[in-house]
Specification:
Blueprint: E1 3-7, H1 12-29, H2 33-48, H3 59-79, H4 85-88, E2 91-96, H5 100-103, H6 107-120, H7 131-139, H8 146-164, H9 175-191
Antiparallel strand pairs: 1-2
Helix pairs in contact: 1-3, 2-3, 6-7, 6-9, 7-8, 8-9
Length: 196
């Protein structure tokens, strides 16, 4: 599987129904999810750059984006059938999977792997390891309140950014930064605990 549903509050069956609907759209178009998503990404990048005329996406990228958007809309309709408008507001739709092992990790695995990454981090990188972000998303996937989940994920990723880029501030000790990330993960764990 190279796609997933970003549908907070959906059951596994509802998410699978959405994926099946998206897959049908992609199959009818004769396009892979990756190719369709790349068209959408090209248009998003062009938008982010302020629509420079010399970097406008190609006709093929526009066509691919249309397929991706149609697949995402079909996924949302199938997944969220019968949902209230309020519940549907927390659905972002179809997402391309780049690292399924990370992005689809269960909560316990995601928490353990985040802690491992933090313990191994030496702060000497030039970029941030995005696995921590995706693992935090996975760990909060079943939190019904999307705002709360976003706050928990943001706290972890902001703290981790400071740790992973510590070399840019050599006058500051690294261990307090490591502890700040671990504290944020502890808060995420407490805040994402299943309700009994």
């Amino acid at each position: 599987m190279d796609i997933m549903m970003d549908a907070r509050g959906a059951t596994p069956e509802e998410k699978q129904r959405g994926i099946a609907a998206a897959t049908a759209v992609l199959d009818r178009a004769g396009m892979t999810a990756e190719d369709a998503a790349s068209g959408s990404f090209a248009i998003e990048r062009w938008d982010d750059m302020g629509f420079p005329p010399d970097q406008e996406p190609s006709e093929d990228e526009y066509a691919a984006a249309e397929v991706w958007w149609a697949a995402s809309n079909a996924a949302i309709e199938a997944c969220c059938e019968g949902w209230s408008d309020e519940k549907r507001m927390q659905v972002h739709g179809l997402q391309l999977l780049r690292d399924p092992e990370t992005e689809l990790a269960d909560r316990a695995t995601a928490l353990a792997r985040m802690r491992e990454i933090v313990q191994e981090e030496d702060g000497q990188g030039d970029t941030i390891d995005n696995r921590v972000f995706f693992l935090a998303l996975a760990a909060t996937a079943k939190v019904p309140d999307s705002s709360k989940a976003q706050q928990l994920v943001s706290a972890v990723t902001v703290a981790y950014s400071s740790l992973s880029l510590a070399r840019f501030h050599p006058e500051e000790p690294i261990e307090p930064k490591r502890q700040a990330v671990l504290d944020a993960i502890d808060a995420l764990e407490a805040g994402s605990a299943p309700l009994n």
